[in-house]
Design a protein that fits this description.
Helix content is 0%, strand content 63%. The chain is mostly beta strands.
Amino acid sequence: MSLNQLILTINQYQKIGILLKLKDGRLCVYTDNERIIRIYNINYTLSYLINKIKSQINSMIQSNEGKLICSSYEITILQLNKNDYEIIQILKIWTNKIIEVYDNNLISLQNNYIRFYSNSNNKYTLEDEYKFEENVNNLIKIKDNELCLILDNYNKKLSINIFNIESKKIIKKLYEIKCKDSGEMVLVENKYLIVSLYLYLILIDIDEYKIIHEIKTCFGCVLTFCLWNDYKFFSGDEIGDIIEWKISKNKILKIKEYNNGKKAVKSIIKINNNLIAAGSYDGFIKFYDISE
């Protein structure tokens, strides 16, 4: 893997928080400290800015129907046009993360709540919520009716749990560890779940809900994952490294490590079959050639 000649510079003083490749091929870039979303054309020329969201965006997705959904102190849903945008709905609910599950429905988390939103006539409505005794650090959909949750008991003992959406109950606790933080989670080929806990990567077989491998790391939490193919993936971490991994014989194997810079790598996305893009707190988006 090598660094491609194309480096997109936002500003060396800005912190790249989220990269998102849109369904039409454009690039959506959010910077944490200035709280601006930039929309780039396919040739990476700047199209326009979105600066109407005043609080820091914690997560950003594009729905199946193409809407850009941002979670912050409120949920903002935007329609992205070719040369401009419009805000079509604002839900006055603070969220740390939001995911789309099925039929354009949404689930969000905030502190010890997860909330469920239905989509009807192009509008989202809060339908239900569930309160936990512990703080919810992260969530990911793993099956049609099941989520994986990272719970924090406020004493920094983290646990990996399976939550059933229909029954609104935790049906299984998979793992528990005393550590100070959790990072990202990623589902691989609908067979494995990888969970980043501080200094650890945990590999879970989701067919049997079984921990099959645990690897200790030296770089703190993984802040972002990027799936490639054939059980190959990349991670970005707190100390500025990109690491290439693969899953083989039910184990996570480290292939190679690349130093992206001295600042945290916050987001990695797949651009095409040859390139990934990495955004970090150094203000650069760097494009890596994977074909070599």
